[in-house]
Write a structure and sequence with these properties.
Layout lengths: L5 E3 L2 E3 L6 H10 L7 E5 L5 H12 L5 H5 L2 H4 L6 H9 L5 E4 L16 E6 L2 H14 L9 H10 L7 H9 L7 E5 H6 L1 H12 L5 H10 L2 H6 L34 H14 L12
Parallel strand pairs: 3-4, 3-5, 5-6
Antiparallel strand pairs: 1-2
Bound molecules: adenosine-3'-5'-diphosphate.
Adenosine-3'-5'-diphosphate binds next to α2, α6 and α12.
Length: about 280
């Protein structure tokens, strides 16, 4: 249990599994290679779902890898202590995951051909998902109530700081050929076409059977039962109770949690912070 965050350049990071020196080294020196595939997201946007899909695309629908290796070893978290160690030693094309905001991301990316997939999600659902996640796990400061977490979220006093800044930063990369922007909502609405889009972007062609397998094995129900993917085998240091990352897996759960006044207050801040961004970029209302 923790009272605070790990602060780096004014940004709150997780306290377990993260170290100031490691984050500093990653941001300043990590070399992204041309053949790397990087998933980037603000926490609770569907990162693990995307990683599972990428692993299945990589293995052409074969489930051996996703059933035998923990998800955090398949796609190590770049800025975490263990993830960085694993990645530094890893040869060949690597799958990486990161929550780093754009301005802290290793600069080597900008001169590389590595492919980045940024997944975003309705921030109100991100907020609700984060409230449960940070409450049940020990990674970070625990909110006492949803009301308190709501305020923290709008202030950016949550892991990785402001959702608004995160998305604005990464959005500025959206026209690059090696960056694909995805949303949790489109994955929910049409997972098959979205998976096809991802495999096209990666230049990996799947036959219909392979595509069926990727679709089936990355579904919420199957992921929920896969202990290598649902985080239930995380050590007790990280999560206090029996826990799975697959909580609800739906769009619009915020409607079951936020009051009308909270939703209105949220929308007001959203409009101010996202002013100037074309609304069509985002699939939520
Ligand atoms: P909820 O808490 O709203 O259920 P992240 O991986 O970025 O931490 O995001 C976690 C969110 O993604 C959780 O949202 C989780 O349930 C959802 N999720 C994980 N796997 C999923 C899947 N296969 N299909 C749909 N949602 C999934």
């Amino acid at each position: 249990m923790t009272d605070d965050y790990l602060w780096f350049e004014g940004l709150p990071f997780l306290v377990i599994g993260y170290r100031y020196e490691v984050i500093k080294e990653v941001c300043a020196q990590f070399v992204i290679k041309d053949e790397d595939i990087v998933t980037v997201s603000y926490p609770k946007s569907g990162s693990h779902w995307l990683i599972e899909i990428l692993c299945l695309i990589h293995s052409k629908g074969d489930t051996k890898w996703i059933r035998s290796v923990p998800i955090w070893e398949r796609a190590p978290w770049l800025e975490s202590e263990d993830g960085y160690k694993l990645l530094k030693e890893r040869e060949g094309p690597r799958l990486l995951a990161s929550h780093l905001p754009f301005h802290l991301f290793p600069k080597s990316f900008f001169t590389s051909k590595a492919k980045v997939i940024y997944i975003m999600r309705n921030p109100k659902d991100v907020l609700v998902s984060g409230y449960y996640y940070w409450t049940i796990t020990n990674f970070s400061k625990k909110p006492e109530s949803l009301e308190q977490y709501f305020k923290w979220f709008l202030q950016g006093y949550v892991p990785y700081g402001s959702w608004f800044e995160h998305i604005r930063g990464w959005m500025s990369m959206r026209h690059r050929k090696n960056v694909l922007l995805l949303s949790y909502e489109e994955l929910q609405k049409d997972p098959r076409s979205t998976i096809e889009r991802i495999s096209q972007f990666l230049g990996k062609k799947l036959n219909p059977e392979e595509l069926d397998s990727v679709l089936k094995n990355s579904s919420f129900q199957v992921m929920k039962e896969n202990k290598m993917s649902n985080l239930e085998i995380l050590s007790e240091e990280f999560s206090s109770r029996h826990f799975k990352i697959t909580r609800k897996g739906i769009c619009g759960d915020w409607k079951n949690h936020l009051t009308v006044a909270q939703a209105e207050a949220f929308d007001k801040v959203y409009q101010e912070k996202m002013a100037g961004f074309p609304k069509e970029l985002f699939p939520w209302e």
